[in-house]
Amino acid sequence: MATLDIFNDDAFSVQEMTAKVNKATYRPGQVGDSGLFHEDGVRTLVISVEEKDGKLGLVEPSERGGPGETADHEKRNLIPFRLEHFQRDDSVNADEIQGIRAFGMESEVEQVEDVVSRKQDRHLRDMDMTLEYMRVGAIKGIVLSKSGKVLVNLYDRFAIAAPAPVSLDLGNDAAKVDEILEKDVAWSIEDDLDSFYDGFHVWTGRDFHLKMWNHPRIRETYLATNGASVLREAIPDRFTIGKFTFERYKTGRKATEDLGSGYIGTNEGRVTPMGVPDLFITRFGPADYMETVNTRGLPRYAKQYAMPNDKGRNIEVQMNPICLCTQPGALRTITL
Predict the structure, then answer these.
(1) Rounded distance, CA 133 to CA 269, Å?
(2) In this structure, is residue 58 part of a structural domain?
(3) Which domain holds residue 18?
(4) CA torsion through residues 131, 113, 287, 91, sign
(5) Each residue of 237-280: pLDDT tens digit?
(6) Tens digit of pLDDT for each residue in 227-240?
C-alpha cells in the first residue's frame, strides 16, 4: 500500500491546512487578549501609514446658502512599512507513518493528520508568542526580533523624538502619584494624541506593580472608596486609579530566559491610550506560495510537500505580520 499517497488527499492542500491552523487555539498573550490591536489582512507585502500635518480646529459659522469656510490643504506623508516573514520548517518522515492502518472510525488520512497537527501545534504556539512580542514592541515604540534586531523603530520612521520616561517618585511616600499621573502623563499624552480616548492601560513589570500598589497615596485613594476591602486581599494583578488601569504583565521564567529579559521591564510601566481607532494595528500579508499570490493575508499559513525520493514530507508554518502604533508620540514609559 502506498501510504504516502495519503498526502495527495484534499485534507493536505494549502487551503485545508491553512484553514485548520487558523482555527487552532490562539494564545496571543495579554496584549493580544486585550483587543488593543485592530487586525486585518492585506494583499500586499508593504503597507503605508498616512501622516497628516492637519490640526483639529473649530469651524466658523457661515450664512446658509452662502460659501463656507475655506479649508487649508493638509500636508500628507505616506510612510511605508514592510511586513515581516516568519517561518518554521519541520518534517514527517516515512517511518513516522509506517504501519498506519484504518482503525475503528478513523481513516488513514485522519491518523496522519493527527501526526502533522501535533508537529504544527508547537510551531503555532511559538508564532503566537512572536506576534505578542511584536505587539509589546509596538507599545514601546521599537519592535525587535528575538535576537534583538530592530525590525521597526517607530520614532525614527515618524521622525520624532521618543518621549522621556516619567518618574512617579514611588520611593517617596509623600509623592502625589495621582497628580503626577494626571499632569505629567495624561495631559502630556492628550497634547500629543490630539484625539478622543477612553482612558489608559498601563502594562507593568513586577517590581513596579508591587511598589505602585503599596504606595501610601494609592492605598489612601482606595481607603476613601467602596473598594477599600481589596486592601485586605492579595495584591491584584489589575487595579484602576482614576483613568489609569494597571495590569501586571506576566512573561514567565522560560520566556524571560529565552529573551534575556521580560517583555516588560520589571521597574517600568508602558502606557497605552485606549479607545482610539487604528492607533494600534496588526496587518497580515499573504504567504509566499503561488496559491496565495494577491490574496488577502491570513494570520497563519501551513503547507506540506514531498521530500526527495519520497523519504517523507516537509511541513512549514508561517505568518507575515506587522504590528504598529500609528502615533508613537502618544506612548509613554513610567518608572519608579
Answers:
(1) 16
(2) no
(3) 3-53+76-335
(4) positive
(5) 999 999 999 999 998 787 777 777 789 999 999 999 999 999 99
(6) 666 666 678 999 99
